[in-house]
Amino acid sequence: MFEADTASQALGIQIVDLAAGRATTTMTVVETMVNGHGITHGGYIFLLADTTFALACNSDGQRAVAARADIRYIRPTHAGEILTAKATMRARFGRNGIYDVTVCAADGTPVAEFRGDSRITPRH
Question: Which residue ranges does the record assign to the Thioesterase domain (predicted)?
Fold first, then answer.
């Protein structure tokens, strides 16, 4: 799935770890990701978390898509920072799943918390 994800790859997102129900990725914030306040645009942080969520909920080979997602931003980040996102499955019931993703700065300080609900869909 990630090999075909040109959006995530164009942003330099890299997979660090991938196993059943979990994933870890990294992304370096570059100047083009900074907003008018001089901090990382929240959409890029969301995209990193969402990509990591997608990897985790598709890690068992079933096709899963997001049914819902939200994020809480904790502190700002800046160009040059390396962000790490870690996704973990919290529950799976039927075709549904709940995943938490924590995005951290290089020193391990959380910068955002993301929760996503997945839905397994048939392959076409």
Answer: 37-110
- Report whether 78 contacts 38 (CB < 8 A): yes
* CA distance linking residue 41 with residue 15, whole number of Å: 21
Q: pTM of the prediction?
A: 0.95
What single-letter amino acid sits at 35?
Answer: N
Report pLDDT digits (tens) over 7-25. 999 999 999 999 999 999 9
Query: Closest by alpha carbon to 72, among 101, 24, 12, 113?
Result: 113
pLDDT exceeds 90 at position 61: no
Distance of alpha carbon 45 from alpha carbon 114, whole angstroms: 10
Q: Which pLDDT tens digit goes with each residue over 20-56?
A: 999 999 999 999 999 999 999 999 999 999 999 999 9
Query: Going by DSSP bridges, is the β-strand pair 64-73/14-19 parallel, antiparallel, or unpaired?
Result: unpaired
What is the Rg, in whole angstroms, of the alpha carbon atoms belonging to the chain?
Answer: 14
